[in-house]
């Protein structure tokens, strides 16, 4: 069973995704998390602390995902592209947390911290791809392909008819060989 802190962050993510940052109150988070107001305040003394906790969660999940990219049996590029595509969300909740943080970016008070956290996620993925590819341009190209697929995942946009991630990876392997 998730801890009270995790239940609060899970509820906060859900509210951000469904309603955006402007509509969220601490009372709404309490109700959604099924914790007392005191329980919420024990972990997060304010909305700012709650947002900071979500950004910490994003950084933690990003670091774990970067390690998964590095150790993926099929290689970093295949992992990055597959988990970026619709239906291939990264294990560990990174996709959901990322989407919630994007919704948090609407808040001007949290804007810089959100941009910094998103930049860290981007840097983690790029570094993991670079570890395999050893070429900054190829690592960036692989990341851009994954980012395009990720945008489709976040917006619910389907892949083109009769094409799938394996087709994309097969073609990419012609240009981005996996390094041993």
UniProtKB/TrEMBL annotation:
A GO molecular-function descriptor: DNA-binding transcription factor activity
UniProt entry tagged with the keyword Translocase: no
Positions of the DNA-binding region: 25-44
Keywords: DNA-binding, Transcription, Transcription regulation
Signal sequence bounds: none
Pfam family, one: TetR_N
InterPro entries, per database record: Homeodomain-like_sf, HTH-type_TetR-like_transc_reg, HTH_TetR
Highest taxon listed in the record's lineage: Bacteria
Limits of the HTH tetR-type domain: 2-62
This protein's name: TetR family transcriptional regulator
Natural source organism: Pseudonocardia hierapolitana
